[in-house]
């Protein structure tokens, strides 16, 4: 392992986990909820840019970005400055009962960058699941309908309403029933696995299932308030819906008066090289849900809807902490940085990484598929390229080996690796990550 100084590349000085990390992991096991999922024993202490330092002084190249959250990197000086300045002026006032300027400023900015030309209004929450819950309530309130449609493989959150939509892993739902009624799940197009790898056929199959099976046999479209869709499924394995599918889904929604809700919590805020993954398909969702990358790590979410749809009455929905002044200040700084340079960098670096991965199916027999947009890239690990049998245990070994080489990555779906670094990475960091990940895949491949 090449050692590096500074805050650019990994620098490992102890066996992992180090002694201080081991102690803290032991304390965590006694007092912290066991429901959290930890892929490896990283105990973070500080971060700069795309690098994390642990409690033993080891430094790691972060290609997870706090689960696609720290879009501008860890502790970007402009974001830190905005947080510090706001904390010295006003920490909390509750936008549900009072007014403050930066909350209005952020709403104006989000409305201006949201897809479509119609006027928008914005509701603020604290997390992605809250943005989804708000969208569910708003859809029912506006349409006076009570049914929802979501997709297999989707992840929309873990609170009871959003969990009723979520269908990525059974463990996320086990023991929490009965969940919200009136939710129907349908297949999500996966060109790699459906219809012999034919994106057009995959699109047709899923849309036919919606119209021929769901609308004709299960739920009249006149009862459906909204269809929730991730333009790129996150926990589902970083699977991109074909553009034709999203456009036709929007057409179906408009024909039946169903609201189309785009869950852009993970794929939005410049990660794909555009503000919204929806833009790659040219669609104009009725509601957009955003969180994660919106405030560089501060807890904030937004539900953005057409002004004509967000017509609920005062008191219908609110949040004490949603739109907190400090989080809003961090978001305004984040959006400015993304707009001025990091969205373009995400597009450029995403293209660079995909070029580096172009021949991985030929080089590595356990790599089944490489896909993505911008800096949202998925690598599917299989036992055999012909059968496409999923190999989650091999994926997990790759993720663990990467950690021990100083590269932080996470799994997605059953058997995919996600690459979702901060949008600030450069070519040197991208090359290092690709080279290191390639080494891990080769090692696991030889040892199986």
Task: Count structural domains.
Answer: 2
- Main structural class: alpha/beta
For the largest beta-sheet, the strand count, sense and barrel status come to:
7 strands, mixed
Please report which band the strand proportion falls in: under 5%, 5-15%, 15-25%, 25-35%, 35-45% or over 45%: 15-25%
Task: Name the helix and strand elements from N-terminus to C-terminus, one letter apiece.
Answer: HEEEHHHEHEHEHEEEHEEEHHEEHEEEH
Strand order of the largest sheet: 4-12-11-10-7-5-6
The level 1 CATH classification of the largest domain is Alpha Beta
Judging by the overall fold, what is the CATH architecture of the largest domain? 3-Layer(aba) Sandwich
Taking pLDDT < 50 over at least 5 consecutive residues as the criterion, the unreliable ranges are none
Question: Given the C-alpha coordinates, what overall shape results?
Answer: globular
What is the number of E strands? Answer: 17
Rounded to the nearest angstrom, the distance between the terminal CA atoms is 22 Å
Number of helices: 12
Which radius of gyration do the C-alpha atoms yield? 22 Å
CATH topology of the largest domain: Aspartate Aminotransferase, domain 2
Helix content percent band: 25-40%
- On the 0 to 100 scale, the average pLDDT is 96
């Amino acid at each position: 392992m090449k050692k590096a100084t500074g805050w650019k590349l990994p620098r490992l000085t102890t066996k992992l986990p180090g002694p201080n990390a081991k102690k803290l992991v032991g304390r965590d096991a006694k007092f912290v909820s066991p429901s959290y999922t930890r892929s490896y024993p990283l105990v973070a202490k500080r971060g700069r840019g795309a690098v994390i330092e642990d409690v033993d002084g080891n430094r790691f190249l972060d290609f997870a970005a706090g689960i696609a959250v720290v879009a501008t990197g860890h502790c970007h000086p402009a974001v830190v400055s905005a947080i510090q300045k706001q904390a010295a002026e006003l920490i909390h006032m509750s936008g549900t009962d009072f007014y403050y300027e930066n909350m209005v400023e952020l709403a104006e900015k989000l409305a201006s960058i949201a897809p479509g030309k119609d006027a928008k209004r914005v509701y603020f929450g604290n997390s992605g699941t809250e943005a989804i819950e708000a969208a569910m309530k708003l859809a029912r309130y506006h349409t006076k309908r009570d049914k929802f449609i979501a997709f297999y493989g989707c992840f929309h959150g873990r609170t009871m309403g959003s969990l009723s939509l979520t269908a990525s892993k059974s463990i996320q739902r086990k023991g929490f029933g009965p969940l919200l009624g009136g939710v129907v799940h349908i297949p999500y197009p996966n060109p790699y696995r459906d219809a012999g790898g034919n994106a057009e056929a995959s699109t047709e199959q899923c849309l036919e299932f919606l119209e021929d099976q769901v609308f004709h046999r299960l739920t009249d479209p006149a009862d459906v308030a909204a269809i929730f869709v991730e333009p790129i499924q996150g926990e589902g394995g970083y699977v991109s819906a074909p553009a034709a599918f999203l456009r036709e889904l929007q057409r179906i929604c408009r024909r039946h008066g169903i609201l189309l809700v785009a869950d852009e919590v993970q794929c939005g805020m410049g990660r794909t090289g555009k503000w919204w993954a929806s833009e790659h398909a040219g669609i104009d969702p009725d509601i957009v849900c955003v969180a994660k990358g919106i405030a560089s790590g501060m807890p904030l979410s937004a539900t953005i809807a057409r002004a004509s749809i967000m017509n609920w009455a005062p008191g219908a929905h609110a949040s004490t902490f949603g739109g907190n002044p400090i989080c809003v200040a961090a978001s305004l700084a984040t959006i400015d940085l993304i707009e001025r340079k990091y969205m373009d960098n995400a597009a450029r670096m995403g293209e660079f990484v995909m070029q580096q991965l172009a021949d991985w199916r030929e080089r590595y027999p356990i790599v089944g598929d490489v896909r993505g947009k911008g800096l949202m890239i998925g690598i599917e690990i299989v036992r055999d390229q012909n059968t496409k049998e999923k190999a989650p245990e091999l994926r997990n070994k790759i993720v663990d080996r990467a950690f021990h080489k100083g590269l932080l990555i996470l799994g997605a779906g059953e058997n995919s690796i996600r690459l979702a670094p901060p949008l600030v990475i450069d070519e040197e960091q991208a090359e290092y990550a690709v080279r290191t990940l390639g080494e891990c895949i080769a090692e696991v491949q030889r040892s199986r």
